[in-house]
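Cross-posting from the chemistry board since nobody answered there.

I work mostly on the small-molecule side, so proteins are not my area. We synthesized NAP and want a rough idea of how it might sit in this target. Sequence and SMILES are below. Is it possible to get a predicted 3D structure of the two together?
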Amino acid sequence: MNILMIGCGKMGGAMLRRWCDASNHSFTVIDPAKPDLPQKVRVEADLSELGGEIFDMIIVAIKPQMIEAVLPDYKNSLKNGGVVVSIAAGFALRNFSKILGDVPLVRVMPNLPALIGLGATGLYANTLCSSGQKKTVEDLMEAVGRAFWVSSEDELDKVTAISGSGPGYVFQIIESYIAAAEKLGFKPDEARALVLQTILGATEMANRSDEAISALRESVTSKNGTTEAGLNALNANGALDTLMRETTDAAYKRAIELQ
Ligand SMILES: NC(=O)c1ccc[n+]([C@@H]2O[C@H](COP(=O)([O-])OP(=O)(O)OC[C@H]3O[C@@H](n4cnc5c(N)ncnc54)[C@H](OP(=O)(O)O)[C@@H]3O)[C@@H](O)[C@H]2O)c1
């Protein structure tokens, strides 16, 4: 496919670098910052450099607040029947339709670990997308982690609240966990290494297991042991359950407000 990416900053650039290794598509980027990209990518600062070329796919990777000003100029850059893919958070399909008319469109919500090929991405396609176009977008997102189709834009807002914002929650939990280890007397570098290796090991164990997470937790919790004592404090009267629910509810509410 002949693919055009509009804007190629942190997220667009991270994905494109992986796609260059993992796919045979041909890529063109328009970005005034002229980012340093693999040689096979054509990089231009401005749309006028393209001389009217048209593309099978246009990927919108600029900030959401710029889309209304920038995207109308690209209306004629999409091949008849071509697909538009947006990674912009919170910019709804109906707003794309106002600018581009009725075109096949996929909204994707990646998260930051896509930078290292471990992203979790939600995808939602409008009804004009062919199964071939959906498969192409899915393959691109699988190249930067795992891709999950959802059946409504509302579900994409929920994905935003779970995995889009999720790395932030996890970093916060890691910070608190490290601070607690330091309080017990470990030096900062020791606390960081112990905590990160524990989270990595537990996550990888869960990933490789078919068992319920609660069964894994029970398997490391002996009666009256240290883990049980810690867990009784961590989730006393379901306090942690409530906190996680409030966290994801607040992010979901904000995702809706930002539409
Ligand atoms: N970062 C994340 O974790 C994340 C996660 C999910 C979704 N997203 C979405 O990804 C999109 C990009 O985010 P980002 O973090 O990658 O932002 P970013 O680093 O600021 O990238 C945007 C790029 O677009 C360029 N640009 C500005 N004006 C342009 C124009 N008229 N035409 C073409 N390119 C233009 C910017 O250049 P200048 O720097 O010179 O302005 C910049 O290189 C956003 O819509 C965001 O919602 C990001």
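Reply from a structural biologist on the board:
Welcome over. Reading the output above for you: Strands lie at 2-6, 26-30, 42-44, 55-60, 78-86, 105-109, 119-125, 145-149. The chain has two domains: 2-157, 166-257. Happy to explain the token format if needed.
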